[in-house]
Amino acid sequence: MLTANLNKETDWNKIEAFMREFSFALVVDTDENNVPQATHLPLVLKQKPDGQYVLQGHLAKANPQWHYFGKQDTLVIFSAPHAYISSSWYEKERIPTWNYMAVHVHGKTRILTDEELHQNLDELVTHYEAASKCPVTIADIDEKSYANNFKAIVGFEIEVRDINANYKLSANKKDKDYFNVIANLQEKGDENSVRIAAEMQCRRPQTEQ
């Protein structure tokens, strides 16, 4: 992912929070013919005792992508907020663009053991059920159903090695255009526009004139 220095996010705390919030990611590998294979999956970010961060998840055993794990690096793409930026919001410039935030992670992938996969599934369900009115747990699933489904999936772990965080948020604009973009995004009012406006506001707080 081409990332200008002006747009590169290097604060690990912000990157970590982003990956945890937008954890439904795109996992990409290449097959024996160097053809990209991709699957959309929820991932859990974990820190190992040695300090290494990893991403854990699982996919269907019927999905051939898992056969390519470990042969080359896996690419994981996290993205969510994005918004069209109209050139009419600028004082003079007439080139429109798109603001967005995305994080790419590269690393080697290995297959989880059964024990590790059991733990990952427990953590995954616990995490996503936390917001439910009546949370369920792995223990609530009957043994036969759990066993049948467990046999049909493959767990994996991707090391978080190379990180490229691209926060393209009008950082190259002068204050007048920058804050006019924020105002227009807020006026649009949709979820993505409001989120992008809020992120821009945090990065360049407007001071009283």
From TrEMBL:
Highest taxon of source: Bacteria
The record's section on Pfam families has: FMN_bind_2
What's the name of the protein?
A: Negative transcriptional regulator, PaiB family
Q: Please tell me the species this chain comes from.
A: Chitinophaga jiangningensis
